Amino acid sequence: MENPFKQIDQPLKEVPAELKSKVMHDIAMAKLFMELAELFSYNLGYIIDSVTSKRKK
Q: Mean pLDDT per segment of 10 residues, for the chain of length 57 residues?
């Protein structure tokens, strides 16, 4: 079995442009879905904090 730690010292290889663009597209889509989910969901931590602070007053 080859020692994988010997490859750490090797210089980095360039990633193919197609793979890089696909990964960047997937990251952008995931970020979009997260932002949409945040937009259409309630921020429960803020709601609980505001309700408890209003009850104390």
A: 85 92 98 90 81 78
